[in-house]
Amino acid sequence: MKKIFQSIIVLVFIFNGCCNLRLPEKYLLENIKVGEEEKFTFKQVTNDSDHLNATIKYTSMTFYSLLDRVFDISNDGQKFIFQAMFGNQARNSMYRLGNYIYERKICDKEDFKTVSKYNSWDGAYSNNGEKVAYIFRDSGEPKIWLVNLQEKNGTAINLTNGKSYPINPKFAPGDTSIFYSYSEDTENEYLGSDDNKKTNKCFFIYKLNLRTQKETKICSGYNATFFPNDRNQIVFCRKNYKWAELWYRNLKTGEERLILKDDSTGLVQPSVSPDGKKIAYTARTIDTVNGNNFDIYVVGIDGENKRQITFHPGNDYCPEWANDGNSLYFVSQRGNKGGYHCIWNISLIKYLEF
Question: 2-347 — its CATH code?
Fold first, then answer.
């Protein structure tokens, strides 16, 4: 228990630049519309009764809340998994409980199944859609577990032991390895683009070969995501002295480059478009009048042509590209009076091409 408490303290310390983003009471409205979003078409995928991401207190979010991938879409675009808490518990008590990870077809709101143990989060599909990796914690440290959806009973296998608090499991193309991150002590790691500043604590990205069980440290960072059908290129987050930045790395050559940074906010949860030309990500929008909140942005893979996609005063986060590249799925507090979290889809067909 002491180790778990220390791990939580470490994660909070790493994200000490995070402010608590609370929604003003007047914005928890079901029918609010935003003029900047009129060129887009929105479709709600889940409902507030699905209790999506219910462990986050519904009016409050920080960058620490964005460490998880709340949901994932299968590569064929037919089904998705999401972390939620179903049951009869009161809403105001759910943030003290744990999530399950559920699977559901995109077109069927009733046909869903449980794919994880209780108190699980941060799930990710394998590229063939047959397996799911997720974070699970019982009485000890959180660990990465793997479940085969093709097996009748869906037996879960523990992949990691000994290290504290892994985050962001992600299958590499080909499904022979999984990438994830740990928070670790370090003495000589530079802080993102701040070449003259070093840190004694940061996240490192690891690779686990599923055949040999060999674990390899890649580089500092987290939220690693792959280019489509390319196991050698990733986009990931790396924190400078205050905020997370978007970085590129070629896993074969070791080449790295900064894609984008913002001196006023962090850039997290990157998702590479199916054509490999754009990145969707989450960032805090600064609004001195109505209050700050999280929104979805898109930028070219070269860091040019940054565009804000969502403008709703409710928090929008965790973008995932549809498999045709014409729309984005994301989590939002829009569309209900309580500010609960639901998955939405936004069509970008009318969006200006880069």
Answer: 2.120.10.30
DSSP E strands in 68-176: the ranges are 71-73, 79-84, 100-105, 112-114, 120-125, 131-136, 143-148, 156-158, 167-171
Q: Cβ contacts of residue 240 below 8 Å, gap of 6+?
A: 191, 192, 193, 194, 197, 261
- 3-state SS, residue 209: strand
pTM of the model: 0.86
Taking only the tens place, the pLDDT of each residue in 40-72 is: 889 999 988 888 887 775 556 888 888 888 999
Dihedral angle computed from the Cα positions of residues 234, 236, 240 and 244, in that order, rounded to the nearest 10 degrees: 150
Does the pLDDT at position 200 exceed 70?
no
How far lies 4's CA from each of 7, 140, 181, 205, 294, in Å?
5, 7, 16, 20, 28
Q: What is residue 12's DSSP assignment?
A: H
Q: Hey, is 295 helix, strand or coil?
A: strand
The neighbour count for residue 183, using CB atoms within 10 Å, is 20
Domain boundaries of the chain, sorted by first residue: 2-347
Pair 139, 118: CB distance under 8 Å = no
- DSSP character for 172? P
- Cβ atoms of 208 and 180 within 8 Å: the answer is yes
* Closest to 349 measured CA to CA, from 324, 313, 330: 324
pLDDT at 192 over 70: no
- Distance between CA atoms of residues 81 and 247, nearest Å: 27
Mean pLDDT of 288-314: 89
Collect contacts of 303-306 with beta carbons under 8 A, ≥24 apart.
303/246, 303/258, 303/259, 303/260, 304/354, 305/354, 306/260
Query: Which residue type is seen at 222?
Result: Y
DSSP state of 291: -
